[in-house]
Structure formats: C-alpha cells, structure tokens
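Sorry, I am new here, but would you mind making up a protein's amino acid sequence and the tokens describing how it folds?
***
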Amino acid sequence: MVFLSGWINKKRDHGNLLFIDLRDNYGITQCIIDKDNSNFNQLEKTQLETVIQIHGKVVHRSKETFNDELETGEIEVLIEKFLILGECKELPMPVFSDQDYSEEIRLKYRFLDLRRKKIHENIILRSKVISFIRSEMEKLGFLEYQTPILTSSSPEGARDFLVPSRLNHGKFYALPQAPQQFKQLIMVSGFDKYFQIAPCFRDEDARADRSPGEFYQLDLEMSFVDQEDVFNVVENLLVNTFKRFSKNKLLTNKFPRISYSDAMIKYGTDKPDLRNPLVITDITDIFFREDVSFEIFKKLVKNGSKARCIVTKKTKDKPRSFFDKIDKWSKDEGFSGLAYFTIEKNKEITAKGPVGKFFSKEALEKIMSTTSAEVGDSIFLACDKLKDLEKMTSLARDKIAQELNLIDNSIFAFCWIVDYPMFERDEKTKKIIFSHNPFSMPQGDIKNIDFKNPLNILAYQYDIVCNGIELSSGAIRNHIPELMYKLFSIAGYEKDQVEKKFSGMINALSYGAPPHGGIAPGIDRIIMLLANEKNIREVTMFPMNQNAQDLMMSAPSEVSETQLKELGISLRGKK
C-alpha cells in the first residue's frame, strides 16, 4: 500500500476505467480506478486541480503502455480509496496545458499559473542556478554579506522607490537600486571578496527583459584587482553555469572584448548579438566622391550625417520583394528607409537595384574593398544623424539576419564591451555629462589625464552581453577622492555638491581605500536565457504587470488616513 498526494492534473474516462494523472512538485503519476470500486463515481465527478490523497498499490505497466515522457512512465497506481484534502472551484484557466493566456488572467491567478509544467520548471531551474552560483562563489573565496534595504536616495541612475519615515517626518528612505555604494564600503572595510544575491529596486517602465519594480542580481566586488581579474572570475562562473544548465553550446569559452566605439560602428549598439554574422560598415567617405551621384545621401553627408551599410552574402538570387520588404519594414519602424543594390560583374563591376546606377565602377570597387563584399553580395545603405543611424542599422542588422535565417538559436554568444567613454555631450543641453558610471576609474596615467579634452577620456567600465541581452555592467572603481572631485567638476558638480550627495562614500575613501572593482550580472536575465524564454515574467515567481501592479495581491493599494497621519503625510487631490 502506498499513499500518494497531489493535484488532479487530468482525467481520462475509458468507461470501465478512470485514469487520473496525479501531479505534485516532482512530476506526474498515472493512477487508475476500476468502475467496480465504490469510490469511482465520486472521483469521476471531482473537479480538476482538487488536492487528493490516493491509497493504492504500485504495479508495473505493460511494455506497450510505457510512457517515456514521464519519470514514472513504467509504473502506475491502482487506486483502492482516496481522500479529498483541498477542494477546487471552477478554474479560470486550465493548468494541464501550457497554452498562452492573457497577462491579466495569468498574473491575477499566478498561483495557478505556477502549477503549469513549463513555468513550474522555470522556477525550479531558477532555484538550482542560484544555489549553484552561491556554491561556485564560495569555492572562489567570496563571502556573502547582506547590505541594507532601507537606504538614502541616489541622485544618479533610475527613479527611486521612496519609503516615508515615521520617526523622521518629511524624510524618506529609498529602496536600493543596487548595493553599489555599500559594496564599495565593504571593500574599504577590509573584506576583499564580497558577493550577494541582491534584491534591487528601480521604478522603471517594464520591458521584455526588465521587471518594472524589483529584480535580483549577483552582486560582487573584489579588492586589489584590475579589469582582467574581474573578467576571469565572471567568465569562469558563467561558462560553468551555462554548461551545467543548458544543452546549448557556447560560441567560445573565452569571451571576445569589443570596444564601445567598435561596437557602435559594427553593430549599431553596445548590446550586440554575436550569433548574427552581419556587420555594419561606415562608408561616409564614399559620398564625397565625384563619381557617386546619389544626391540624397550626398546632401545629408554634407550636412553632417553619416552613412553606413550592411552586406548580405550571396543574395543576388533573392527576389526584389525580399529587398523591398526590408525597406518597407524600415519605414514602418519610423526611419527613412534602406537603399540597396546587388553587386554584379559582366565585363566589369556594376550594381543592380534602384540606386545602383548612382555608383561608378571605381566607387563600387572602393565599397567592396571597404566592406569585403564580393560579386553576388547585396548591400543595404542608410544615412542619417549618428544616433538615429546607429539605432536604424542595429535594428536592420537583426531584421535582415532573421529574414535570412542566419541566427543559430542553439548557441550562447558572450562578449565584453569595454573602453566606455567617461563622458558624453548631452544632445539637448550640449553640456558634458557622465556617460556610464560616475564612480569609475579613468584609464591611463591618472597624473597625466587630459582633463581639457574630457570626451577623449576612457574609463575602466565594462558590460557583459549574451545573445544581444545585457547581463551586467561593472567597473574598476575610482577610490581616490581628489580625482573624483575633478571628474565630477567636469560634469558640472561643485566640490560641496559631491560631498553632500555622496558624503558616506567620499568620507570612507579618504581613510585608506584599496583599489577595487566589481560587476553585477542579472539573475533574472541569466535564467531567462537558460530557460529559452523571451520575457522575464516567465522566470519570476510573482512578477508585476506592465503598469507595475501586482494583480494577485492588489498592490499598490490605498492606505488608511491613520497610517498617513503617523507618517506625517497628506495626499493632494487624487488623479
């Protein structure tokens, strides 16, 4: 006699026999009850997802009835009697199917959604991956420390979630966007290898790869290290994790390093998908030639725009509809479109296509030399102001690769994006601002940095990207207060402003701080890649919807006047 408890996942009535698929956390077991059993009629009428306990006998199935899809597929349980442990109302959505349902239904009844096989396995995978990462970090000599959840508001970065203080009316805590300053203070405190599976809170709009409220990251920091030390730790960790939990191959165990400037030219983004073999090439100089008569591009280039192109290999036999479809897609996305031509050779090099006639043989040969294009290849061309051009060509690169089926979905392609500029010029205000992380160490001899040309200063900042998804940003930190004052002054901060906004950090760094650096790969995005999911909601146990609402728990919610009074808060007219 065995006792087996779980949920009724599915029932199949074969007349004299009733088959019950009983599901628990570990999987499904087939159970059978005969019509002659006194419990048959009651079990037949019992609602799916009711929690029951079965008393019965385990028997081997006949070989022809084995179910290879189940771990229990070689046995079944003959039911003698059963007990109802938890009744179930009429279901708002079926659980035995992975059929997609609306976000509203799935999130309102998340406890039912989580019973479904695919998402249930995703959450179990998440737990196993986090446990594995913890184990690997401990093997590397890292110790886990917990940093505060209630902290001060950050003047940089995303929008904070604020928490009013009952004991200090008019003042607010902030939930941490990341443990950035605390982990640096841990290094100043003499603990040289820190990590934490850290909750982070940012009041940001939702995206497929970003939750609208909270997320988790593997936060780590190391003392007495340079950029290469951080890279070695993270590369080994990610290689081991992805090999352990996925059948997909890694393009390479040693992640290529791509400078930010090269990434923006070759891929149009600092989050390139290296599974895509297409690259972007700058051909602005071509349109200064007299033997190029493509006047639309020539005028744009003369007024400061840039021109870039994407070569597609051996596409001369593609119908015109293929090229027109890409051009139309570009216009539908709000861009000016993509010109195109195909390189041919009869007696000499020519270009077939709507704009091919505007290029001389010599100009075409120059384009071929610049882009490594060959006869039979096609070239898509775009021209615009730099930021718009980068966005257009980045999206076009992905779209063209999808249309040509060039992306191998069985591969993980990691890379490091390095050499970020310390500063950039704000397009609207024209002022110089920090481009990435203001607490980063500038590259080069710090005694001879060219502060007069700040846009040329590079920083020890780096991102790690996989399949076009940014997993993390990191940096070697600036641990020298006087250098920090100088860099902040370039971005328009007075010394007293820096001391006021970053008082804890500046004060700590002035008491003997070691060189240190770190990074914080996103746990949710790692799991999303390993589970082959497109949306981060599928690997998060209780996510919010697009409007940052928890439909299951009805959060955010209104609070009582008594609570507001305790906090010293009064609400203005409700919108």
